[in-house]
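#onboarding

Welcome to the new folks! Below is a worked example of what a typical request in this channel looks like: someone posts a single protein sequence, and someone else replies with the predicted structure as tokens. Don't worry about understanding the tokens yet, we'll cover that in week two.

Example request:
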Amino acid sequence: MKVSFEGIGEQVLSFNKASGVEKGSLVKMSANDTVTKCAAGNNFAGVCIHADDDFADVKTSGYVELGYTDTAPTVGFAKLTASDDKKVKTATTGREYLVIKVDTTAAVVGFIM
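Example response:
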């Protein structure tokens, strides 16, 4: 048996997408029913898990693993923002997430949104 956090509290919503949103993008709301890619320092609404020409499926809650930049987050509650459109970084303001796993070798953080 192995430890797994997949599937716990997952919620996926479908949105219209702005140009540039692709699988793996951290996204934020940009207009009614529409998401766009995050820029550095943005709070994110979720992670795009599928995108086609017009729509993006966005995981808005549940467990995710993403790359991080700058200082490694620590396990427990940590404030995270977008570092770019696919990675996160620790922050002094913004939303707190439950960080469950930090892999400093691969620069990956696992957390519950």
